[in-house]
C-alpha cells in the first residue's frame, strides 16, 4: 500500500514538471543575482536555470556597473542551455527590448526621452536612451553649429525622437528641438515683459553689415545700423563690439514673428531739433566730407547733421565734373547753408558760395578795354576760347579775330595751346560770359583814320592802282575804290587811264561804313558840289553867265 502511494506521488510530481511553463527562448525573463565572480554576474532565472552576464552590461556609458548579489534583474533569454548546461542570457538585450517598448510609447505620445551622448560617428553622434542606441545628427545638436561637443558627452539630458524603425533598429533623435522649444518659451516670456518705448540693457552677440544682434536675456533684438546714432555710421563695428553691454530702446515688437527692433539714437537728443537755430540760412560753417556720390557730396556739420552739396553748387568753373575730383572723403571744407527742411531732415549746402564769383572778380579787375593774355583752350566753329585768371574762359568771336581777314580764314592761324593776347570787350557776370577781341589789340585803325571824316567831307587820297572799272586809292592807310562812273562829272573824263599811281586826288566822302570799314569816295560828287557852291557865290544860271565864267571868276578870286 505504501509502495503504491510512493509511486503515485512520483508520477504526480513528474506530470507537474511536464506541465510547468518553461520560459520561451527570445523573451525577457526575471532573474536573481546569486553570485558575482570573474567580472561576471551569475543569475538564477528559475526553472533550475542559471546564466552568466558580463558586469559591463549593467553599466551606463561612462559609469561603473551598478549590481550586487540579491538584486533582481530582467535579462533576455537567448538559449535555455549551452554546452556547459547553462542558460545563455543578456542584460543588454533585455534593456534594449525594454527601452524599445518605452521609446515606442514616448514616440507615439510625442514625449521627451532621456539619454546621454556617448560616441561620435560620421555625420553626428550616438546616444544611449537607456538601452537603445539612437543617432543624433550634427545639425540637431544645438540651435547653432557646435564646434566642440566634449562638454555634452556622457551628460544625461532630454531628447526628442524624430524617427524610429524597430524592425531596422533605427532611431533618430534631436537635442535642438528641445532647445528651440524651451527657447521659444523663454522668448515668449521675455517678450511678454517688454513694451515698445522701453529702455533695456542688452549684450551685443553678433555684428553684421546692416546692424547688430543684441541679447535681451534670452531673446535677440536687431539694432539696425541706421538706429545706432544720429550721425552716419558706415559699419556697426565703428561704435559696437561683440560682448559689449549697451542700453537700447525697444522700437517695435512683432508678436507673431517675435522679432524685436531696437534703437540707440532714440535715447539721445535729436540734433535736428536745433538745426534751424544753429545754422541760419546764408551762414558759413566748417564741415567734413563723409560720402561722395555722382550727384554731389555729403558734408557732416556735426554728429548727426549732414547736408548735401549738390554737384551744381560745388564750383563756379568746373562744370560736368565728378564731385570726387573737387573734394575727397574726410576733407574739411567751408560750406554755406542754402536751405533747411526739418521735416525731411535735409540741409542743402553750397561750396562755391564760400568763394567769390570769379566773373565778378574779373569784371572788377578787368574793365572793358583791358588787355589780357591766355592759352587757347578750345577752337570751335564760331571762335576761340581763351583761359583767363580765376580758372575761367573768355571767347573771341570769329568777327573779332582780324580787321583784314574773314573770321573763317583768320581762325586757321591759331592752334590749341597757343598763348595769345586780346582785349576785354564785354563781361556779362549773370550769364558768366566774357567777350574778347584780338583785332582790337592795335586799336581800331579805321576809326582812327576816319575819326574826323564825315559824309560830305573833301579829303585828299593817293592813287595806288589803276583798273578797268576804276581806281584804287588810299587814305591814312585805309584802301577805297572809286568806280569809273565816279571819276568825273563829264563822261568823257571818266577814264581810269588818265590817272597814274601816286597821283594826289581830292575826293568827296559819300559814305562812311564802319561795318565794312570802307569809305565811299567820288570825284564826280566833289565836282558837282564845287559847281553848286560856285553858283551860289558868284551868280546863278539865270543871269546868263556861263559855268566857265563863274568858275574862272571863282578861281581868280581864290588866287587873289
UniProtKB/TrEMBL annotation:
It comes from the Bacteria. InterPro entries: NA-bd_OB-fold, Ribos_protein_bS1-like, Ribosomal_bS1, Ribosomal_protein_S1-like, S1_domain. PANTHER family: 30S RIBOSOMAL PROTEIN S1, SMALL RIBOSOMAL SUBUNIT PROTEIN BS1C. Belongs to the bacterial ribosomal protein bS1 family. NCBIfam families: PRK06299.1-2, PRK06299.1-5, rpsA. Keywords: Repeat, Ribonucleoprotein, Ribosomal protein, RNA-binding. PROSITE patterns: S1. The keyword Ribosomal protein applies. One of its GO terms (biological process) is translation. GO terms for molecular function: mRNA binding; structural constituent of ribosome. CDD domains: S1_RPS1_repeat_ec1_hs1, S1_RPS1_repeat_ec2_hs2, S1_RPS1_repeat_ec3, S1_RPS1_repeat_ec6. This is 30S ribosomal protein S1. One of its GO terms (cellular component) is cytosolic small ribosomal subunit. Residues 26-92, 110-176, 197-265, 282-352, 369-439, 456-524 form the S1 motif domain. Binds mRNA; thus facilitating recognition of the initiation point. It is needed to translate mRNA with a short Shine-Dalgarno (SD) purine-rich sequence. Gene3D superfamilies: Nucleic acid-binding proteins. Transmembrane segments: none annotated.
Amino acid at each position: 500500500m505504501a509502495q503504491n502511494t510512493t509511486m503515485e506521488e512520483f508520477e504526480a510530481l513528474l506530470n507537474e514538471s511536464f506541465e510547468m511553463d518553461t520560459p520561451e527562448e527570445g523573451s525577457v525573463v526575471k532573474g536573481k543575482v546569486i553570485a558575482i565572480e570573474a567580472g561576471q554576474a551569475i543569475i538564477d532565472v528559475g526553472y533550475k536555470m542559471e546564466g552568466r552576464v558580463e558586469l559591463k552590461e549593467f553599466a551606463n556609458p561612462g559609469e561603473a556597473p551598478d549590481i550586487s548579489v540579491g538584486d533582481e534583474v530582467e535579462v533576455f533569454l537567448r538559449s535555455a542551455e549551452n554546452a556547459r548546461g547553462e542558460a545563455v542570457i543578456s542584460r543588454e538585450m533585455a534593456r534594449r527590448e525594454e527601452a524599445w517598448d518605452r521609446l515606442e510609447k514616448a514616440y507615439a505620445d510625442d514625449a521627451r526621452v532621456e539619454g546621454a551622448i556617448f560616441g561620435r560617428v560620421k555625420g553626428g553622434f550616438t546616444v544611449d536612451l537607456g538601452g537603445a542606441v539612437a543617432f543624433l545628427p550634427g545639425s540637431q545638436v544645438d540651435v547653432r553649429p557646435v564646434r566642440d561637443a566634449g562638454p555634452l558627452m556622457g551628460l544625461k539630458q532630454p531628447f526628442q525622437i524624430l524617427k524610429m524603425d524597430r524592425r531596422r533598429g533605427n532611431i533618430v533623435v534631436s537635442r535642438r528641438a528641445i532647445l528651440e522649444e524651451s527657447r521659444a518659451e523663454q522668448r515668449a516670456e521675455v517678450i511678454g515683459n517688454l513694451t515698445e518705448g522701453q529702455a533695456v540693457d542688452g549684450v551685443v552677440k553678433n555684428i553684421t553689415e546692416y546692424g547688430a544682434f543684441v541679447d535681451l536675456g534670452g531673446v535677440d533684438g536687431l539694432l539696425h545700423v541706421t538706429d545706432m546714432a544720429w550721425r552716419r555710421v558706415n559699419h556697426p563695428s565703428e561704435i559696437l563690439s561683440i560682448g559689449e553691454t549697451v542700453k537700447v530702446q525697444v522700437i517695435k515688437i512683432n508678436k507673431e514673428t517675435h522679432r524685436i527692433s531696437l534703437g540707440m539714437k532714440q535715447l539721445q537728443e535729436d540734433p535736428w531739433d536745433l538745426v534751424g537755430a544753429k545754422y541760419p540760412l546764408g551762414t558759413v560753417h566748417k564741415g567734413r566730407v563723409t560720402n561722395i556720390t555722382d550727384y554731389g557730396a555729403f558734408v557732416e556739420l556735426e554728429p548727426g547733421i549732414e547736408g548735401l552739396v549738390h554737384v551744381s553748387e560745388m564750383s563756379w568753373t568746373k562744370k560736368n565734373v565728378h564731385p570726387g575730383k573737387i573734394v575727397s572723403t574726410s576733407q574739411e571744407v567751408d560750406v554755406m547753408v542754402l536751405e533747411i527742411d526739418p521735416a525731411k531732415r535735409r540741409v542743402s549746402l553750397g561750396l562755391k558760395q564760400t568763394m567769390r564769383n570769379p566773373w565778378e572778380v574779373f569784371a572788377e579787375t578787368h574793365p572793358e578795354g583791358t588787355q589780357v593774355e591766355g592759352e587757347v583752350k578750345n577752337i570751335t566753329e564760331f571762335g576761340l576760347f581763351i583761359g583767363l585768371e580765376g580758372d575761367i574762359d573768355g571767347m573771341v568771336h570769329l568777327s573779332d579775330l582780324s580787321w583784314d581777314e574773314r573770321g573763317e580764314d583768320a581762325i586757321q592761324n591759331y592752334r590749341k595751346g597757343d598763348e595769345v593776347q586780346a582785349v576785354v570787350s564785354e563781361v556779362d557776370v549773370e550769364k558768366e560770359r566774357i567777350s574778347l577781341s584780338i583785332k582790337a589789340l592795335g586799336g581800331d585803325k579805321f576809326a582812327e583814320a576816319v575819326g574826323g571824316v564825315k559824309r560830305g567831307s573833301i579829303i585828299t587820297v593817293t592813287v595806288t592802282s589803276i583798273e578797268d572799272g576804276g581806281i584804287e586809292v588810299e587814305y591814312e592807310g585805309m584802301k577805297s575804290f572809286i568806280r569809273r562812273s565816279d571819276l568825273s562829272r563829264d563822261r568823257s573824263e571818266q577814264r581810269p587811264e588818265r590817272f597814274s599811281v601816286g597821283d594826289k586826288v581830292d575826293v568827296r566822302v559819300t559814305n562812311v561804313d564802319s561795318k565794312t570799314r570802307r569809305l565811299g569816295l567820288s570825284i564826280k560828287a566833289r565836282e558837282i558840289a564845287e559847281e553848286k557852291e560856285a553858283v551860289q557865290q558868284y551868280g546863278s544860271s539865270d543871269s546868263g553867265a556861263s559855268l566857265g565864267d563863274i568858275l574862272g571868276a571863282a578861281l581868280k578870286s581864290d588866287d587873289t
